Amino acid sequence: MDWYNPSDTDIPKGHFIDGRFMSFNDDTSVDVICPSTGQAYAALNYASPDTVEFAVSQAYQAYRTNSWASMAPRERAKYLFQWAELIEKHQASLAQLESLGSSRPYHEVLQWDIPYVVDCLRFFAELADKHGGYVGATQQDRLGMVISQPYGVIGAITPWNFPMSMLMWKVGPALAAGNAVVLKPSEMTPFTSVYLAKLAVDAGIPANQFNVVQGDGKTVGQAICEHSLIGKVTFTGSTATGAAIMSTCALKGPKPSTLELGGKSPQVVFADADIDKTALTVAKAITGNAGQVCVSGSRLIIHQDIAETFSQKVLSHFSQLRMGPTWNKSTTLPPIISAGQAQRINSIVNQSIAQGAERLCGGELINDGGSFFTPTLLAITDNNNCAVQQEIFGPVLTMQTFDSDEQAWALASHETYGLAAGIHTQNLQRALTGMRQIEAGSVWINRYGRSFDHIMPTGGFKQSGIGKDIGVEAFQANLKTKSVLIDF
Ligand code: ADP
Q1: Which CATH superfamily is domain 266-453 in?
Q2: Where does residue 99 fall: left (phi above 0), alpha (psi -120 to 50 degrees), or beta otherwise?
Q3: Can you give the pLDDT at residue 447?
Q4: Residue 260 catalytic?
């Protein structure tokens, strides 16, 4: 049974600039593949350099001349709230478009992604008038004020794993703070972004305040980062691409960037944890969106006394997952985004086994139209094994055992990444010690994953990123400060 018929989906065409859908003669047309079937389902216009130039200059003009940045912040918030309402109204079509083009199952988009996007937008709208500067301790015969103002045009580059949620992480705070935005979504999941941009205009947000240009990273994404009228870049994606973007921002500016990058997050489970609840949490944290989540809990670090019992429970949860297209009602394990990505997962798993990992289940690449990967558990003793060291971005969990707290914390820390970590124990002292020890931007104790508490910023340490998304910090990151001195 299907939630909808995929061939009945309306696909928006073109970029979204100047408050409307636009295509240009010198755009290149490229097929977009549906991850569930492996077939092309639509064509995407890749922007030419002229199109990028047009989108950015329109956004800059809008920033300079529109009422948006200068309007009373509560008024700005009103339009953002109207946008949130429209997103809710269009949730069924948005969910269909999102699930057709990505690995997000339809019912999960409706139950999780849309409420998350809407709530996140409302959180940032509420912040629009909840900030200010300060008066400095200057000499008595002058007044020194530190005020904040928007950057101007924010360049936003987003990945394919949660297309609408990642968009709102960037666009919500940028608009709430008074900026204009030029967004380039992933070329693999491009269509819900222009739909959302159209709804923004329908909600009364001025044209060109939020423009979307379509295309690949190396040309279109790069051109956005290079553009002199882009005041700041915000990005979520791989560490390698984040580094490339930071280097472009350094050379073509310099301009600041916020980067939310890769992870290899540990789930540390002690013998005193609630075993049943934790096994389910651990299984979900690596199989949700088929493991294609930056904060996937991909390294199980478990006390040796419970490793056998615990891993059996995780395997039992794995075995209940059903692969299928995102629109099928029984699907609980969605496809891998592309055949190439599935091949990459497969080759790391094979290499890991060749390096001594014991495969406790899974490890199978299944091509059934789309590419699927069976949930995999690898028992590993060598911390240098490639499955422990590399981000896999698939449903592959490594398991390492410890017999002392010190050993647990040592294994939990990762040479490269520091995005998130889970600690599972009934012992408060142990949990809080681990919380301090582990080098990660988010630590979850007796739970795993983000919540709707948008007040909690997210972002990585080490090569997992720079700066924060969500939270008040993400809002403030869209403002720059200016010092003003007035002589009496
Ligand atoms: P993936 O390869 O898995 O899609 P990336 O991190 O490379 O992950 O992509 C995330 C986003 O970054 C996408 O929108 C992609 O088009 C964009 N991108 C890729 N390379 C660059 C680049 N050099 N400059 C700017 N954006 C890029």
Answers
A1: Aldehyde Dehydrogenase; Chain A, domain 2 (3.40.309.10)
A2: alpha
A3: 98
A4: yes
Instruction: Break the chain into its structural domains and give their ranges.
Output: 6-261+465-487, 266-453
423 lines ligand 1 (CB under 6 A): no
Ligand 1 and 190: CB distance under 6 A: no
Q: Which two tokens stand for residue 415?
A: 């040479």
Specify the pLDDT at position 35.
98
* 481: nearest Cα among 182, 147, 215, 245: 147
The domain 6-261+465-487 belongs to what CATH superfamily?
A: Aldehyde Dehydrogenase; Chain A, domain 1 (3.40.605.10)
Distance 186 CA to ligand 1 centre (A): 7
> Which residue from 260, 263, 308 is spatially nearest to 286, judged by alpha carbons?
263
Contacts of 209 (CB under 8 A, 6+ apart): 59, 62, 63, 66, 68, 175, 180, 181, 200
**298 C-beta closer than 6 A to ligand 1:** no
**CA-nearest residue, atom 23 of ligand 1:** 218
Atom 19 of ligand 1, residue of closest alpha carbon = 217
Q: What is the pTM of this model?
A: 0.97
Is ligand 1 within 6 A of the CB of residue 375?
A: no
Residue 437 sits at the vertex; the CA angle it makes with 433 and 439, to the nearest 5 degrees, is 145
Q: In the prediction, which pLDDT does 66 show?
A: 78
Chain CA centroid to CA 446, Å: 23
- pLDDT of res. 372: 98
Mean pLDDT in order along the chain per 10 residues (488 residues): 96 97 95 98 97 98 92 97 98 98 98 98 98 96 97 98 98 98 98 98 97 98 98 98 98 96 98 98 98 98 98 98 97 98 98 98 96 98 98 98 97 97 98 97 97 97 97 97 97
Structure confidence at residue 148 (pLDDT): 96
What six digits make up the tokens of 232? 């700041």
